[in-house]
Amino acid sequence: MVQTLFDLVRRYADAHADQSGVAQTPVPGLSMVRVLYPGALQVAINRPLVATVLQGRKLVTMGAETFDLGPGDALLISADVPTVSQISKASVAAPYYALILELDLAMIADIAAAIGLPHGQGGPISVERFDPHVEDVATRLMQFLNRSGAISVLGDGLLREMHYWMLSGSHGTAIRRLGTADSHAQRISRAVALIRAQFAETLRVNELAEAAGMSISSFHQHFRAATTLSPLQFQKQLRLIEARRRMMAEGAAIADAAYAVGYESVPQFTREYSRLFNVSPGRDLRQTRVGTSGLQPA
Fold this sequence. Notes:
The protein is of the alpha+beta class. The chain has helices spanning 2-16, 105-115, 132-143, 148-168, 172-176, 184-197, 205-212, 216-227, 231-250, 254-260, 266-277, 281-289; strands at 22-24, 30-35, 42-45, 49-55, 57-62, 65-69, 73-77, 82-89, 96-102, 125-129. It contains twelve helices and ten strands. The strands form two sheets. The protein has a six-stranded antiparallel sheet with strand order 1-2-9-4-7-10, with helices on one face. The chain has a four-stranded antiparallel sheet with strand order 3-8-5-6.
């Protein structure tokens, strides 16, 4: 079955991957990654997701912990935390392929309540082997991608089934904490969603605390505990990551990308970009254009 899923992902990603190596699908939250060469270190703040490596290898670091992912490894990111990653094995003959599913928090909460699952615990990142039940559903879903009628009728049910098996499997404990009603994780996720939607605007911490239903001091404490960053640091990294995406994937000029994500000063943008990515935006662009670097989603 793994070979069947791999073949389906390979064919779809080869046909649909954009310049950054991402192949979006008509299924909400489902995408694939195809990369032809080992790459430079990449910084990201992903939404909660499960990323399964099907070919190649990737290193993912959060804080002091590093995970070495190979074929059949499923990486769970259950909080909006910053990660540093690097595709360590990929080639034109054997590209890196991964299947990505962003987790639907409302669906998780609904399923957990329906089957009476206990509250979850666990850290923000973990790695397990790909669950055979999830693999089976993913294979069926992939087979319908080019059949829009089947996706519109069956897609939601298959996504729900996939979430069910993930909740019931080895990743389930960590995923369940995302579905705990009115938990700190859910409250902070509301504030995170607000920052993601308005990252180019002036950040007002009191509005974020209000969205989370917390006092400002409690909000700061729980936000850092959930994301490892302050709200301002979180917003800054989102701005820089989005600016880099615009430059690399859309060909935006450095100044245009800086202004689009909320910076008023290009020199300030250049300093903060260099500090986060360890390379200036101009040099980063030149390296990417000659193929020595590339965007690497989770």
